[in-house]
Amino acid sequence: MSDPARAATQLKTRIGRKFDELAYRSELGLVAYLTAGDPSIDGTEQIVLRMAEAGADVIELGIPFSDPVADGPTIQRASERALCAGTTLEKVIQLVARLRNKTEVPVVLFGYFNPILQMGLEKFAKRASTAGADGVLVTDMTPEESAEHCSAMRASGLDTVFLAAPTSTDERLNRIARVSSGFLYVISRTGVTGAKDSLPEELPAMVRRARKFTQLPIAVGFGISVPAQVTILGGIADAVVVGSSLVGEIEKAKSVNEAAKNAAARVRLLKEAAKHGVSRRGLDE
């Protein structure tokens, strides 16, 4: 492991402390995604706080982008609504600062590289860290091109979360693991985000393969939407990532209050299933 990667794994951000806490309890974590600014910045603040109260262990706050190539139709529509509502990267960072005054839930900023590049890597990293963000996941950032990005983020104390796909070779998994900190995000299937009825049969083998290259917690996402899927991942992963089903609750709601209530109810249901699951790290420890 390189010196920067070793330093990153030793740094205990809120994300690291949360996963340590989950491992101590042998409990599967729940990472909850929603798109910032959908239906509004103020609405997102209310929904995040309700989801955190309901048991979300980590919040992934999506930065809306006009060409979200990795996102399925539900999250694409959320990005469109957020952009139409006037959401910008600057407003998302301001939202993080407001949230940090009210909750200690770890926050990962999730987005595409272009808006970050437009702001400037160092400026973005400093602004995000000062606001209280804990990590950054850039969906179109490859490990081969990530040196400057990782350096800027880590200099500001931010974890760098990367995606690993079922198609990733062992060599590529090793590269991804070396630049990751906080946790490693394993995509359960090829394609875009979206709720599915079942998990791929090859997923456990994929997670086991990723574990050969990292001691970081592993979170599994893409397609997870119901408690049964969460329970199945107990003893395989350390956390599940749920996005489209939560964004769908927001889309269906007729008001912010209803959106917050319904999203929180779904989080509570999924977290209850997660409590019956077992963190793989908890088993190992």
CATH architecture level-2 label: Alpha-Beta Barrel
Give me the oligomer status.
Answer: single chain
By DSSP, the count of extended strands is 9
Q: Major sheet, described briefly?
A: 9 strands, parallel
**Would you state the CATH class?**
Alpha Beta
Average pLDDT, all residues: 89
CATH superfamily: Aldolase class I
User: How would you write the strand order of the largest sheet?
Assistant: 5-4-3-2-1-9-8-7-6
Uncertain spans: 1-10, 190-196
Question: What would you note in describing this structure?
Answer:
This protein has 285 residues and is α/β, with parallel strands linked by helices. The chain has helices at residues 3-10, 14-24, 41-54, 73-84, 89-100, 113-119, 121-131, 147-155, 170-179, 203-211, 227-232, 244-252, 256-276, 280-284, and strands spanning 29-35, 58-62, 107-111, 135-138, 159-161, 163-164, 184-187, 218-221, 239-242. It has a nine-stranded parallel sheet with strand order 5-4-3-2-1-9-8-7-6. α3 packs across α5 (89-100), α3 runs parallel beside α13 and α5 (89-100) runs parallel beside α7. The longest helix has 21 residues, at 256-276. The radius of gyration is 17 Å and the shape is globular.
